[in-house]
Amino acid sequence: MSCWRKKIGQATGPQKLFMDNGSILLEEVVKCCDGKNNPIINFSADQILKATNNFNQSNLVEKNDCNYHFYRGTLDDNRLVVIKKKAYGGLHARKICRDISISSMVSGQKNFIKLLGCCLEFTCPVLVCEYAEGITQNDLHQIDPTLPWNTRIKIARDISNSLAYLHTAFSTTFIHKNVHPRNVFLDVKGVAKLGDFRNCVTIPQGESFVREYKLEGTYGYLDPNYMSKGIITENVDVYSFGVFMLVLLSRRTPGLDDELHPDFLTELAKNGRFVEILDPNLLENIGDFAEQELCRMQAFFLLSLKCIGVRGEVPEMMEVSKELKRIERS
Fold first, then answer.
1. Which CATH number fits domain 2-131: 3.40.190.10, 3.40.50.700, 3.90.550.10, 3.30.200.20?
2. Which of 37, 200, 243, 296 would disulfide-bridge 33, Cβ 3.0–4.6 Å?
3. 95 vs 25, 42, 90, 91, 133, CA distance in Å?
4. Where do the Protein kinase domain residues begin and end (predicted)?
């Protein structure tokens, strides 16, 4: 390690950035992945600049809050990719290295954005990912209104699979902590994929929770127990996923729309008035099987209420995934 530090001290320019960021990334890989990460390619700064035409604004496809900018890029082999770059004043290198390390670990599962590689030669590392498009369309990150009902159900099922995988596939439980429409993408085959692991935390084997004293995530999607006590359990993801389901149904904005308040939602469920929050675009395109589709929407709505803890016991993500599969096939 002392030899490595000596080399860092002697390096300059891109080489120093590479070694500084590389040491942080190595720490995150060891801490998070337990040696179970997939191989990734190391891209040079020149390759990234060439792929994005020097981060030309014409290639900017999305701004993910104040932290990431997403650029369309073309590699030397003509592959289309998405390049994630730190926004000005946004993330620190350690957060981005956490994203890289966990992305590399889950890239083999189809419902996560596949990380192809990274570049460590910028002030903060840059991620190179498979090409996929976001499901939101404006600064409020509202769902694309053209997404049909069947696609929205499939998106929910795909993302529930990714969260169940994070919670159960490893010796330690991974909590995403920022399930939000802006972190969900669709590939060319219509497969929904979850990305952005910068806020991800682990619950050690044998423990049921960890505690944090600095809240992270998106207002309107935060589990009340996490907000009030800083306690992180699997329910943090289940709650935000339940809100995500409500957004898929309604195209409304949590935290800004009173009609997504739990008390109002409970009243709708009690009186069978759930149709009042549905996205009008869904009702307009419901087709010849209106009664059947409304039954599926109601089941979807009631499941979302279970996830946010206002209708019975909060389910685990594996249960949610199974129920969504049943709803999709009904």
1. 3.30.200.20
2. 37
3. 10, 18, 10, 6, 23
4. 55-330
